[in-house]
Amino acid sequence: MSDRLDSVYYMGAPESLSSSSTPSMTPPKYVHHFDTYSLVKQLHEGGYSSDQATTMMKAVRALLAHNLDMAQEKLVSKSDVENESYLFSAACSELSAEIKNNRRAQDEQIRQQRTHLQHEVDILTQTLNQELLTLNDNVRGAFNDRKMTVREEQKGADSAIQQITYKISIMLSSDSKSEIEGVRWILIRRSVVGILFMAIVTLGTIRYATYVSHKRQREQDRKKKEEEEVRRDGGKSDRTSAPDAAAILAAN
Q1: Among 25, 26, 109, 147, who pairs with 72 as Cys (CB 3.0-4.6 Å)?
Q2: Chain-centroid distance, C-alpha 216
Q3: Overall number of domains in the chain
């Protein structure tokens, strides 16, 4: 920094300065980037002498020139910017084309893989359908076999049931016939006994009725004889019984 300030004291006019490597960045004659007179005046009014103010103004101008030189060295020209832009655009175009080509290749690869997978899926679907048809046929055959077996078993069970029913019916019919015969003989016996009893009772009743009728007839005959005797005697002899006589006396 001290070397830069020392060089400021021996700095000449702007036209005596040597041009840099880029003449386009060299300022024209007596062209400053700030108001040097106003700066010197303000410094002088601030308490600095004219020499000090001029020296400080030159130092500021030297620093500004140094910074401009540094900026000139580091700046890029418009042609370089255009070249870089063109190269960047070309690189972007190449990258875009490469990306598109890669996408197309990937799409084609994916399409081929999808076609291959679709083909495998179709093959698996056909195989599965064939296996399902075979399984359906096997299940249907097994079902039919089982149905036939069940029918045969059912027929055997029906025949066994019919045999058992026939045996039971035969046993029941034989037992019922024997029981019916026994009951019939019992009923016949009871009917015969009943008929005999009724005949005996009827005969007894007839005999009793005959006896009663004969007794009444005899009583009537006796009464008729007594009345005839009473008529013959004229009421002289008493032929009434003791109870009849007692009743007559009580009535008198």
Answers
A1: 25
A2: 108
A3: 1
